[in-house]
Amino acid sequence: MTQEKVIIDAQNKSLGRLASEIAVVLQGKKRVDYDPSKDFPIFVYIKNLDKVRFTGKKFNQKLFYKHTGYIGHLKEIPLKILWQKNPLKTLKLVISRMLPKNKLRKKRLERIKILEENED
């Protein structure tokens, strides 16, 4: 199999719709020979990630939860703080929750990259 390179422009797309589009591409659902058990070498490059749109009050009110496993240790992290620290990591977190929970998820998430302005 040869490697595929898909470039997605994130300008004026909402975070969830962008993530679902990337999740479909990473799984290979757009291919003719799609099989859920196969891992296709599809690399997704994202342009203009800093111009993603957030609808409503989600940017200030959306919370991501993480549990450490100990009683009372449910951690809340607002979307605003996550996005300011690392937008790519936030996007990967959202996409991760849309992909099937199996051994292929980690490999697929590693194939998401940011396309810089001077690259093409």
Briefly characterize the structure.
The chain has 120 residues and is of the alpha/beta class.
Secondary structure elements and pairings:
Elements lengths: L3 E6 L5 H13 L14 E6 L10 H4 L1 E5 L6 E5 H7 L1 H10 L7 H6 L2 E3 L6
Parallel strand pairs: 1-2, 2-5
Antiparallel strand pairs: 3-4
Helix pairs in contact: 1-4, 3-4
**Helix/strand class:** alpha/beta
Separation, N- and C-terminal Cα atoms = 22 Å
Mean model confidence by pLDDT? 93
Low-confidence stretches: none
Strand order of the largest sheet: 1-2-5
Count, helices: 5
Tell me about the biggest sheet?
3 strands, parallel
Our Rg estimate from Cα atoms comes to 16 Å
Polypeptide structure, described:
This protein has 120 residues and is of the alpha/beta class. It has a domain at 4-55 and 87-114: Ribosomal Protein L13p, Chain: A, CATH 3.90.1180.10. It has five helices and five strands. The chain has a three-stranded parallel β-sheet with strand order 1-2-5, covered by helices on one side. The protein has a two-stranded antiparallel ribbon with strand order 3-4. A hairpin with a 6-residue loop joins strand 3 (63-67) and strand 4. Helix 1 (15-27) packs across helix 4 (87-96) and helix 3 (79-85) crosses helix 4 (87-96). The longest helix has 13 residues, at 15-27. It is globular, with a radius of gyration of 16 Å. The two termini are 22 Å apart.
